[in-house]
Known about the structure:
The chain is of the alpha/beta class. It folds into two domains: 2-179, Aminopeptidase; 207-238, no CATH class. 37% of the residues lie in helices and 16% in strands. It is built from seven helices and six strands. It has a six-stranded mixed beta sheet, sandwiched between helices. Helix 1 (24-39) crosses helix 6, helix 3 runs antiparallel to helix 6 (161-179) and helix 3 crosses helix 7 (216-228). The longest helix has 19 residues, at 161-179. It is globular and about 50 Å long.
Amino acid sequence: MKIMLDAGHGYNTAGKRTPDGMPEYEFNRGAANYAKNFLENYQNVTVYFAHSDERDVPLKERTDKANQLKVDCYVSIHANAYGSGWNNAGGIETYVHPPKPKEAYELAQKIQKNLVISTGLSDRGVKTADFHVLRETRMTAVLAECGFMTNPNEAKLMRSDTFQKTCAEAIVKAIVDQYKLIRKNTNPETMPSNSTSQPLSKKGLYKVQVGAFNDRKSAENLANALKSLGYDAFIHFE
């Protein structure tokens, strides 16, 4: 399977940056790099980049490349914005082309769900738009907006390597689910031996932390999303 990841814009794209100057591309390419690394752990997967760290690649060149390579899936990674100054607009939204191709819409729904759960940000839903990368590609194409650059809290997250990795994991999880990808080296005989590991105690309670946030609202959003899926989630303040 061929997958093209598109880190939206470039380092020098005018206007595409936080009010205090961080280029949107800094987040986009960080998440794309992590996504590529994760996807390469799956069988029969080839990952291409539509973007470049050397120059701002025009949109037509990106989609022409995807069409020429005949990739099966095109995922464009972005950060959103509202106006040019700091404000409270925030959350995750994912886009498909207005005709809502079935496979693209299904993938967008999976990406949206995973990003909301993983980041704890507000769910703005799956939407349609006549974006060039959605309109001119001949394969399944989606565009994910992973938070708002004009929201001070979300902009701070985007600078974080952890947040970039979290978004990448959410997107890759959706792709894996959509296309039923199989991890490499899943044969038990090729897995590392656990013979030297200490057995787990049968007593006590094991807990898993799934998020850490600077504001309670983000924590509550994630907890509510997990509860809606049937998990017994709670918030612990330190």
